């Protein structure tokens, strides 16, 4: 029963802008339950969840899974009113910071992405992402690992956008060699890099460890450019790590990124490097 309770949904982050919607859905669940003449314990037992979890959903402190709403709609004869919120709750399950990032990525016409500690989130496989979150200290609870992993995988829809954005990735060599999650997880991750690297709108480059000159020593760089001519960027080693959007600051990030690309292996050389790394596993 404890596992079923954990599967009912996700906690609402304090101050999350989605909180009023979650609360409205919770009130609707309660109204439909009472109209059906069921107690919270009875609804929970019928659906395989605990009474406490049902009451948390009704109070708006727990985000119900879309599957919960679909089943509850049938059981309570809600005539589609609960199912109507399934997509809202599907989006709500992702952390607020991830929703905002995904929204910006959905508007980007071009993205410049340099990663130095791990494979960039947009390139990660589910197994690699899960293993990466499991390295966190203090340790994340299992449901948060699941939530964060699902959110990261949802962002990969950017590869299916039309028109497709131009995506430039530069990965440090060490990120292709560190076996996060074990060698089999790394093998599948490298195979994924080879798949993505073949896409016409994607440039994937590797920065070799033996480079004497390296413009990326101050940490990761991310720049998102939008169709209206605006952009936003951030870097661990610039502007105190805060996002910047004014042209002067963006020029600094683009200058560093341009130099990193020039110092890295070419896209063709980089794919050959990934293939070689895969062959060593």
* Estimated structural class: alpha/beta
- Molecular shape: elongated
Order of helices and strands: HEHHHEHHHEHHEHEEEHH
Return the average pLDDT rounded to an integer.
Answer: 91
Q: Indicate the CATH class of the largest domain.
A: Alpha Beta
Strand content: 5-15%
Number of helices: 12
- CATH architecture level-2 label of the largest domain: 2-Layer Sandwich
Unreliable runs: 1-6
N- to C-terminal distance: 41 Å
Keywords summarizing the entry:
alpha/beta, 434 Repressor (Amino-terminal Domain), 2 domains, two-stranded antiparallel ribbon, 281 residues, Endonuclease, Chain A, five-stranded mixed beta sheet, single chain, elongated, disordered N terminus
Structural write-up:
The protein is of the alpha/beta class and 281 residues long. It folds into two domains: 2-92, Orthogonal Bundle (434 Repressor (Amino-terminal Domain)), CATH 1.10.260; 96-279, Endonuclease, Chain A. The protein is 48% helix and 14% strand. It is built from twelve helices and seven strands. The chain has helices at 2-6, 19-35, 40-47, 51-59, 66-75, 86-92, 96-107, 126-133, 142-154, 183-197, 247-263, 267-279, and strands at residues 9-11, 62-64, 108-115, 166-172, 202-207, 221-226, 231-235. Strands 5-4-3-6-7 form a five-stranded mixed sheet, with helices on both faces. The longest helix has 17 residues, at 19-35. The protein starts with a helix and ends with a helix. It holds the Pfam family DUF5753. This is Helix-turn-helix domain-containing protein.
């Amino acid at each position: 029963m404890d596992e079923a309770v954990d599967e009912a949904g996700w906690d609402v982050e304090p101050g999350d802008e989605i909180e009023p919607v979650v609360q409205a859905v919770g009130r609707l669940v309660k109204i439909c339950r009472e109209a059906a003449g069921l107690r919270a314990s009875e609804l929970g037992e019928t659906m395989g969840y605990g009474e406490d979890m049902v009451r948390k959903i009704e109070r708006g402190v727990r985000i119900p899974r879309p599957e919960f709403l679909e089943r509850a709609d049938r059981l309570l004869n809600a005539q589609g009113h609960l199912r109507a919120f399934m997509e809202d709750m599907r989006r709500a399950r992702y952390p607020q910071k991830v929703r905002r990032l995904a929204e910006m990525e959905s508007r980007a016409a071009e993205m410049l992405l340099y990663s130095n500690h791990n494979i960039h989130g947009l390139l990660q496989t589910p197994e690699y992402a899960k293993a990466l979150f499991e390295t966190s200290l203090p340790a994340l609870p299992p449901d948060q690992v699941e939530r964060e992993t699902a959110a990261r995988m949802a962002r990969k829809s950017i590869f299916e956008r039309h028109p497709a954005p131009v995506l430039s990735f530069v990965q440090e060599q060490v990120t292709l060699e560190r076996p996060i999650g074990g060698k089999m997880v790394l093998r599948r991750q490298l195979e994924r890099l080879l798949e993505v690297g073949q896409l016409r709108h994607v440039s994937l480059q590797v920065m070799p460890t033996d480079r004497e000159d390296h413009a990326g020593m101050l940490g990761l760089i991310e720049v998102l450019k939008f169709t209206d001519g605006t952009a936003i960027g951030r870097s661990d080693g610039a502007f105190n790590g805060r996002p910047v959007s004014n042209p002067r600051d963006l020029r600094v990030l683009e200058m560093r990124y341009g130099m990193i690309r020039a110092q890295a292996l070419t896209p063709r050389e980089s794919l050959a490097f990934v293939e070689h790394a895969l062959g060593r596993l």
